[in-house]
Amino acid sequence: MSLILTRFSVRSRVPDCPAIKGFIETSFVDWKGHLASVLFLGGCNFRCPFCHNRDLVINPGGFEDVPLEYLIATIRKYRAHWVDKIVVTGGEPTIHKNLFELIGLLKSEGMSIKLDTNGSNPSVVKGLVGDGFIDCIAMDVKGPLDRYSRWCGSKIDEGKIRESIEFIMECGIDYYFRMTVVPFLHQEEDVYAVATELQGSKDLIIQTFRPDITLNPAYERIKPFSPDKMTRIKANVAGIMSGKGWKRDEAPQVSDLDFRKAEELYP
């Protein structure tokens, strides 16, 4: 029996394990191409105004903890039915002490693990990968790196974001990047700037903004881009990622009114 399993066998001996604030037994959408369980950790060091996990970010104490005993028992039950993958998400998992302990426990149960991260703690990401704990990483890229604090609602060390991106692209495990496109906060060329910065990476998934229970309530009034526009943006991103470029004359003109609305939502 491993050290981690021995320590788990007596609940009180698991020191400062991050509180688990949510658990989905099976999901088809949280690990691209795979069926997986999903584990949520509370809290985040970003304050992205468009975040749709508002309560998990700013009030994680309002959620009951999911007991580790229940989590492990459920993992074992579903693993017997071919669910051998779990996503560790948040919030931002890498802000938590003893994240290594929790992920090591999951790994000792025979689970493949995907980490969702905002990339702000590259040393943690490197340590987890170096220890062989992580099988896939999904990193959310909020916008062009030269204005990163604007997208995140707090002061961000852009160097650490870049360090995480470079490490993820070179670390040898599966990964992909994601960007949520938010009208008024992002202009269309911001999306293409991110795609240009990530050229050479495996994948950049462009996500449609969801205006429900956002961290900044004003963002709940923003309408997502239309499906047709998102299809065009995704096609242009695919062109950039493949080195073919994009048609700049397709980008819409932005009016002064658009900029005023944006400033009202995110001064």
Report low-confidence residues grouped into runs of 5 or more: 1-15, 250-267
Distance between the termini: 55 Å
Q: Helix proportion of residues, in percent? A: 25-40%
Strand order of the largest sheet: 1-2-3-4-5-6-7
User: How many domains, as an integer?
Assistant: 1
CATH level 1 name: Alpha Beta
Task: Break the fold down into its secondary structure elements and pairings.
Layout: H1 3-8, E1 20-31, E2 34-41, H2 54-58, H3 68-79, E3 85-89, H4 99-108, E4 112-117, H5 122-130, E5 136-140, H6 148-152, H7 158-170, E6 174-181, H8 188-197, E7 204-208, H9 227-241, H10 256-265
Helix pairs in contact: 5-7, 8-9
Overview of this structure, please?
The chain is an alpha/beta fold. The chain has one domain (3-265): Aldolase class I (TIM Barrel, Alpha-Beta Barrel), CATH 3.20.20.70. Helices cover 36% and strands 18% of the residues. It is built from ten helices and seven strands. The chain has helices at 3-8, 54-58, 68-79, 99-108, 122-130, 148-152, 158-170, 188-197, 227-241, 256-265, and strands at 20-31, 34-41, 85-89, 112-117, 136-140, 174-181, 204-208. Strands 1-2-3-4-5-6-7 form a seven-stranded mixed beta sheet. Helix 5 packs parallel to helix 7 (158-170). The longest helix is centred in the C-terminal third of the chain and has 15 residues, at 227-241. It is globular, with a radius of gyration of 19 Å. The N and C termini lie far apart (55 Å).
